[in-house]
Design goal:
about 210 residues; alpha/beta; Rossmann fold; 7 strands; globular; electron transfer activity; FMN dependent NADH:quinone oxidoreductase; EC 1.6.5.-; FMN; Flavodoxin_fold
Length: about 210
């Protein structure tokens, strides 16, 4: 069975364009792939394990074969749960707004806990090599202004970062769905949203 992992990093606001388009994509995808398993995480509602002093100590003790404290064991277990779920998935859908040219902090924190050497990638004499094969990803991102296809495109550091991170893991099949100008052109908000839903439906057919 194909597993689809949906990661939403969006605050709980009414009439979110990105969430609406993402939910529509999932609806169309489910219609086309009724037997696939779809797992969804709301990073604004769920607690992502941090990378902090306790985490670093736990990893060090684990590498050296030293006993872990109860707190360290809990941290390692939480990290492994999120990581293993990511490794077991076949397809990924990332959903977020652009925040100050980047991803929301919650999405960045998620990437941090799945970017694990010897799990999602490994170091070699020629540089890092991805360990994931035959997986694909979709990134749905909204922005108040229009960036892609304009001179401002270079300022979308978040979209570029996510694509590079997944490429590091070996996920080369990457699709972008940018929904832009929803604040700059508020009178065209519904039109922009409708166009994005049409694009989402087309992507669902091939995803």
């Amino acid at each position: 069975m194909t597993k689809v992992l949906v990661i939403k990093a969006h605050p709980h606001v009414e009439d979110s364009v990105s969430i609406s388009v993402a939910d529509y994509f999932i609806k169309k995808y489910r219609e086309l792939h009724p037997d696939d398993e779809i797992i969804t995480h709301d990073l604004y509602a769920e607690k992502i394990p941090p990378l902090n002093d306790t985490t670093m100590k736990a990893w060090k003790h684990q590498r050296n074969g030293q006993p872990l404290s109860d707190e360290e064991q809990q941290v390692i277990a939480a990290h492994n749960q999120w990581l293993n779920e990511f490794l077991e998935a076949d397809k990924y859908v990332f959903v977020n707004p652009m925040y100050n040219f980047f991803l929301p902090a919650e999405m960045k924190q998620y990437v941090d806990i799945i970017a694990v050497p010897r799990k999602t990638f490994k170091y070699t004499e020629k540089g890092p090599v991805g360990l994931l094969e035959n997986k694909k990803a979709l990134h749905i991102q909204t922005a108040g202004s229009v960036y892609h296809g304009t001179p401002l495109e270079k300022f979308d550091f978040g979209g570029t970062y996510l694509k590079l991170a997944l490429k590091l893991f070996g996920v080369d099949d990457f699709t972008d769905l940018y929904i832009e100008g929803v604040d700059q052109f508020r009178d065209r908000r519904d039109t922009i949203k409708e166009k994005a839903m049409q694009d989402a439906a087309k992507i669902a057919e091939k995803f």
